């Protein structure tokens, strides 16, 4: 594995995954217009022995869809990676590009945390359809079973929260999405909720950097206790 690079792993879709016709059409268009971009399902990033899995919504157009690494190259990633670094979950330099760290000795590395998305391909207007979310759930399911030390999952936003519950076969009504909540799930897993760290949410004050840090502080003490 190349440090700093997202790797397809054993559980992800292939580069030309054809499961969602609308997303494939969008991808084909972008491959024509921006041939140097990643323009493919974005693989998860981080070690497979992680105890914490962070689940976002879907790649951003000029972020993960361009760079090929979750949350890399857009505002949401600036906040996420800075917060991870603050709590010791990330080290090295986040330069928000495709070649992040490849030419330097200060490669961005995650420790004990892995990052993925509920939907692996870029959806138009950043809005995946319910059918696309359902189809892509198989990859989240594969991800969950491939992480032997997994103890906690952080859902960034309601869609991620509901997708995680669906993947685990749990009822939404039993675990409401509440920013800052830590839900005890069957089997000893914990599901933590945060508002998504999108530019929109931070610009509108729905999520402040302090609120985001509180979620990570709670997760850190939870993982230290368990
Ligand atoms: N980038 C991602 O990879 N996921 C998100 O949810 C947002 C930005």
Short description:
This protein is an alpha/beta fold and 226 residues long. 34% of the residues lie in helices and 12% in strands.
Proper CATH architecture: 3-Layer(aba) Sandwich
Rg for CA atoms = 16 Å
Bound molecules: uracil
- Give the averaged pLDDT, no decimals: 93
N/C terminus separation: 29 Å
What shape does the CA trace take?
globular
Strand content: 5-15%
Number of DSSP-assigned strands: 7
Number of helices: 7
Q: Describe the largest sheet.
A: 5 strands, mixed
Helix/sheet category: alpha/beta
* CATH H-level superfamily: Uracil-DNA glycosylase-like domain
Spell out the key features of this protein.
226 residues, alpha/beta, Uracil-DNA Glycosylase, subunit E, 5-stranded mixed β-sheet, two-stranded antiparallel ribbon, 7 helices, 34% helix, binds uracil
What does this structure look like?
The chain is α/β, with parallel strands linked by helices. It has one domain (21-225): 3-Layer(aba) Sandwich (Uracil-DNA Glycosylase, subunit E), CATH 3.40.470. It has helices spanning 21-33, 64-67, 75-86, 130-145, 158-167, 199-203, 209-225, and strands at residues 52-56, 90-91, 109-110, 113-117, 152-156, 182-184, 190-194. The strands form two sheets. It has a five-stranded mixed β-sheet with strand order 4-1-5-7-6, sandwiched between helices. A two-stranded antiparallel sheet has the order 2-3. It is globular.
């Amino acid at each position: 594995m190349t440090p700093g690079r997202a790797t397809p792993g054993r559980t992800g879709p292939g580069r030309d995954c054809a499961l969602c016709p609308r997303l494939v059409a969008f991808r084909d268009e972008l491959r024509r217009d921006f041939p140097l971009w990643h323009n493919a399902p974005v693989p998860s990033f981080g070690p497979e022995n992680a105890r914490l899995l962070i689940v976002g919504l879907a790649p951003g157009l000029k972020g993960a869809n361009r760079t090929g690494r979750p949350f890399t190259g857009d505002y949401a990633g600036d906040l996420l990676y800075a917060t991870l670094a603050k709590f010791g979950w990330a080290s090295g330099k986040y330069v928000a590009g495709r070649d992040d760290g490849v030419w330097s000795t200060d490669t961005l590395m995650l420790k004990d945390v892995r990052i993925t998305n509920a939907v692996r391909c870029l959806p138009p207007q950043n809005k995946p359809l319910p059918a696309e979310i359902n189809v892509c759930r198989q990859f989240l399911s594969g991800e969950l079973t491939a992480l032997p030390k997994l103890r906690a999952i952080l859902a960034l936003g309601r869609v991620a929260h509901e997708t995680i519950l669906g993947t685990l076969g749990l009822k939404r009504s039993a675990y409401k999405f509440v920013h800052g909540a830590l839900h005890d799930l069957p089997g000893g897993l914990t599901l933590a909720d945060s508002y998504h760290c999108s530019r929109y949410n931070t610009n509108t004050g729905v999520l402040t950097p302090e609120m985001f840090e509180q979620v990570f502080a709670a997760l850190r003490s939870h993982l230290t206790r368990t």
